[in-house]
Design a protein that fits this description.
The chain is α+β, with helices and mostly antiparallel strands. It has one domain: Deoxyribonuclease I, Chain A (4-Layer Sandwich), CATH 3.60.10.10. Helices cover 24% and strands 27% of the residues. It is built from 6 helices and 13 strands. Strands 1, 2, 3, 4, 5, 12 and 13 form a 7-stranded mixed β-sheet that branches. A 6-stranded mixed β-sheet has the order 6-7-8-9-11-10. The chain starts with a helix and ends with a strand.
Length: 282
């Protein structure tokens, strides 16, 4: 084998392994995905029918870690089992198994869970509670992870209230504050979820105007791919026009690509939200 052929072979191995030749750093596929709670009234879009398609979407796009919103305990366990992924998170109603989760599912072969926690989006974040003008309890679950290259990072996953504007604005202030308290090592951090706000909302700008925080959609090396919105309501005939699901980041992170995924099956969507995916490297 010539020296040139050997170099080409090594380059191909790096690319197939998802490793950047520049700095020899692994890339990661992360996503946020509101999977829609298991509502028996969703005739034609029942969870039992959507579950395989949600799992297949994650597999096909090789998403190694993703934050969910709205999933109930049995949904998270079913999805975890279908993928062979571990998860962290608790129910928002009692801090155990009752109510919707903001669970983070992850491939334990790729990511080691180092620490985890959940706090409520309210003035009393350490106990199950409803904050400000929110209609419902809202939470943020987080994990501290180590990847296969021994790089350590944080992921925070949220679901803001769909009614209370004050609650959304105060939630952004609280989340930024809590991340600062938890991430004392100043490690790379990803904040993802269903924020229930578009980029023109003060709850969004509270995050992007905080020192060091950026929207991955705007920082992607490859221009963001996909439609102009993320909430579908299962309506096949209308494309959404407002992005309310976001992935923010802070620290030494490069966003390689960002996409709003419109995967479907037989004119049906796996959920009433499109998942948002990023590929990134430290």
């Amino acid at each position: 084998m010539t020296q040139s052929s050997f170099k080409t072979l090594i380059l191909c191995i790096f690319l197939l392994a998802g490793i950047s030749v520049s700095g020899i750093s692994q890339t990661h596929q992360f996503a946020t995905f509101n999977i829609r709670w298991d509502n028996s009234n969703d005739v034609g879009n029942l969870w039992k029918d959507r579950l395989p398609h949600v799992a297949n979407l994650i597999r096909f796009h090789q998403i190694g870690l993703f934050g969910t919103q709205e999933g109930l305990n049995h949904q998270i366990n079913q999805l975890s089992e279908a993928l062979g992924y571990d998860y962290l998170g608790v129910g928002r109603d009692d801090g155990a198994q009752k109510g919707e989760y903001t669970a983070i599912l992850f491939d334990a072969k790729k990511y080691q869970l180092v620490d985890q926690g959940t706090f409520w989006l309210s003035p009393t974040p350490n106990v199950p509670s409803k904050g400000w003008d929110a209609a419902l309890n809202r939470i943020c679950s987080w994990g501290k992870f180590k990847d296969q290259m021994n790089k350590v990072f944080y992921v925070f996953n949220i679901h803001y209230d769909h009614i209370g504007q004050e609650a959304r604005e105060e939630s952004s202030k609280l989340v930024i504050q809590k991340i600062g308290e938890i991430n004392k090592e100043n490690l790379p951090v990803v904040l993802m979820g269903d924020f229930n706000v578009t980029p023109d909302n003060p709850a969004y700008s509270t995050i992007t105007e905080s020192p060091g925080w950026k929207d991955s959609r705007l920082e992607s090396d490859i221009p963001s791919y996909g439609p102009a919105g993320t909430f579908t309501g299962f309506d096949w005939e209308k494309m959404p026009d407002g992005i309310i699901d976001h992935i923010f980041f802070k620290g030494n992170i490069t966003i390689i690509r960002h996409g709003i995924l419109t995967d479907n099956y037989g004119k049906k969507y796996p959920s009433d939200h499109f998942p948002v995916m990023v590929e990134l490297s430290w």
